[in-house]
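[User] I wish I could look at a protein chain and see how it folds. I have put the entry right below:
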Amino acid sequence: MIQVGNGTHVYEVAEGWAKLPETMQWGYTHGVDVDSKGNVYVFHTGKPSVVKFDAEGNYLSSWGEDFQEAHGFYLHKEGEGEFLYVTDTAGGKVVKTTLEGETILTIGTPDLPDIYDGERRFVPTDVAVAPNGDIYIADGYGQSWIHQYSANGGYIRSWGGKGSEPGLLNCPHGVSVDLRGGEPEIYVADRGNHRIQVFTPDGGFKRVIDENMDMPCSFYYYGDEVYFPDLHSRITIFDRNDKLITHLGEDQQAYKQPGWPNLDAGYYRQNRFSSPHGVCVDSDGNVFVAEWIHNGRVTKLIRRR
């Protein structure tokens, strides 16, 4: 039995969990999320882009032939339903779909000529939804802005812009709505600045978190804890006060290897991560990790304590 973690967070690695059909192969596995029934969805750059598994890793279905380059991936419960929000970096759009892949809403380049033109592209990397339905989009690979929309796609406001001062951003790779406190807060994975920035729902700067992380990518909340992939080779878990609980699968040599993230197959180990890009947690506390590797890697960690 191969384990990771320590203290109150110990997991068993489920070897060979994702049973991908022989007729399919992974591209870069960028996103992963889980629905209320325990089914797991993986968003990757191969075709079809969305692959659905049951909790045991058995293949169920797939869809998403039209996405040019899969990236951020977010499953949101709305009333009695559940929906996926996906970002397409090459297509320059965010798409809301049903769990079966039917398109509900598409948001493209914001009509902001002072920010976007023929040379300055909109390249969204992540999306989140607030309890009131507002949609937050991170333009991580474009111009380093956060854009806020209403539930039906109406533009509300933007904040950010490239820089290192508080409130400015350098590759805001991930965005999420934190509901652990009394009021919602917007967490931004300011990856290029190796930090997290926290804002009010209307974009007001609140604080910076810059300890015990290295290139945070995105966020997933489980109870009072927040899990996030550090692209530099580990999953990080914070408590409700954003203090470190533990790192999972840390490998501080992986990202220093020549050719990273696409290393020789012999380098990878089941209990160590190389380039984690997406993470989610199911109702039993099991953790799923998707890694930014050209032929993909998805790992399930079974919670033992």
